[in-house]
Amino acid sequence: MDFFSHILFGIFAATLAVRPFNLAWVIFGGLMAGLPDFDALLAPLNKIRKSFYFQHRGGSHSFLTAIVVAIPLAGIFTYISGENFFVAWISGALFYGLHLSLDALTTYRTPLFYPIRKTTYKLDFERAVNPVLMGVSLGIILFLSLSQWTDNTLQTTITGIAIAYFGYLGYRIGVKLVVQRTALPGTRVLPGTLPLVYYRYRHVITDSTTAYSFTKYVSVCHKTEQLYNSEFRAGSPEYAWFQKARELIPKGHFFGAWDCIIPIIKVQGNQVLVKVIFAEGYMSYAAFCITIEFEQDTKRVVDVRHGFERLERSRQNK
Question: Is the peptide bond before 115 cis (omega within 30 degrees of 0)?
Fold first, then answer.
């Protein structure tokens, strides 16, 4: 989930949990709920010394980290506000943990129990970053920050917005479960940017073929659109190029967090382009991709590039 929505959920939690309403707790809740995403600032340190704690959504996104990090910040909060340290520590860890729990609802893997367990978790109920939700959350934070409020009015306003947000999450979870139940076995259902849109990803392996399909599904009108369909025969040149490209995908937490890939292969003269689309980030014919260019006769790697890019429509490989 995006940074601004995390802050907003921390504000919601503090508003709903603390009685009477206390603005200091609301600010503390918002800051602690947004804190884990500041791990992005540690990325340069990972070049100096490789550590899972220096990677975004790495060791910082663990409940154990929440307990440890909350100690000094609870001390600062206690010194400023005069609140009980133990209450501030436990509450701070819970606000921090709220961030981790929300991230586990998304399409990006989260190591909730690291380093005790290195298993990562994701439930695919919401996008890792939804630009629409992020924009709405930023607007609400600015609205709450820049307006003049009495405590009662602010509490009532935040409570009303919180109900709407939790309703949105409930809708996302409910519709995704319904769409999943009606999908073919082995299908992954991924959320779109808008609440009505979902994507169905399917990867089927048989003795003779490997097939990938990616379909857009609009829940209200039950409209379906085939976006990508790639099928490779075992032992075919296309399958060999794809396997060679997979070996060149960077290792590490970022690329390992994505499960749903769609390979697109294009041959032009002596040039072979293998584009690997990461379906979890797909939206409106754009997605995060890795494109690997080979020289066909020598099988030499000419170029490897990755990033978020626009995609061609409905290309099929068979």
Answer: yes
